[in-house]
Amino acid sequence: MAQVSVTVHERPYQVMCEDGQEEHVKRLAAYIDQRVREIAGKSGVPGPAGQVTESRLLIMAALMVADELGEAYDDLEEMRRAPPRTVPDPATVKAAEEARSAASAARAQLAEAEAALRTANLRQAEAEAARNASDADAERDRAALAATEQRAAAAEQRAAAGEEGARAAEARAREAGDAARNAHAAATQAEAALQAAARRIAESELLLQEAERERAATRATLASLSAQSASARNADDVLASGLEALAQQIDEMATRVERGAARQ
Known about the structure:
With 264 residues, the protein is mostly helical. The protein is built from four helices and two strands; from the N terminus they run ββαααα. The protein has a two-stranded antiparallel sheet. Helix 1 packs across helix 2 and helix 2 runs antiparallel to helix 3. The termini are far apart.
């Protein structure tokens, strides 16, 4: 068996034939190609079409060739039934043989076209199933994406709320720091005021002690003066000087007391 490569409607096909019949098969294929082109020209399909369209073209061409072959068979049958008046024309016999060969090739092309059509339908069904599965996957992906976007939005809101809380806490911390610094400054001032008051109290105590000593000295002076006055009533000068000294001591003591009161 030989294998011949033929072209129908710009598509190559591998056809098996008997040895020596290669050219004959090519002529038949050219005839079928011509019929297919005629049908394609009428249907508006100028070049190679999809699998289903190509198969339909081949089926229509095969039907046309089969119709022509049927008419040729009918003519031959009428010729057989009619009494032989003349010798058969060799050209007619050759045409009938070519028609039979064309019919065989057409039947083979029709079988191939039907097989191709079944394959195309199967592939179309598979493609439809794959597309449905892809649509379902896409729908799941869209749902997952929407859920992810919602979670991201919620996370952004929580982050914004956390940042706002952090800013508020930072502001409260600054306010607490300012209050602590103010309290420390007030405590420092209070401590300084306490120390100053303690110093003034100590100075007042010293003044009081000095005043007590001066008061004791004054009492002693008065006692001495009283003794001197009793023993020497007539000593006016001594008494006058003693009284003057006593008045001076009293004035000094009053001055110190006023200074201590002013410091307090």
